[in-house]
Specification:
three-stranded antiparallel sheet; 2 helices
């Protein structure tokens, strides 16, 4: 994805459809991000398809900001970054 993305730890989350919409994704992603903040304590990245509004909301809640849109395997994705734990 590029030098501003590839070297950094990548966060990701996936829920089976029956578990979506109940706040479980945010709870799980927040727990993982808390671990990143303690252990990695630096920049993390993630990529999300532009039509995945739920994941984009989770990323925004966790402090991720969009970097740019690109393609992965011919499909559009949004690259996001989080500079590190809140101060």
């Amino acid at each position: 994805m590029g030098d501003d993305f590839d070297p950094f730890p990548e966060a990701g989350w996936v829920l089976e459809p029956g578990a979506q919409g109940r706040g479980l994704g945010l709870e799980a992603a927040q727990a993982a991000q808390d671990w990143f903040d303690r252990v990695v304590a630096g920049r993390t990245v993630c990529l999300i398809t532009p039509d995945n509004e739920g994941s984009l909301r989770i990323a925004e809640t966790l402090g991720y900001t969009p970097m740019r849109e690109t393609e992965m395997d011919g499909d559009p994705v949004v690259l996001l970054t989080r500079k590190g734990p809140p101060v």
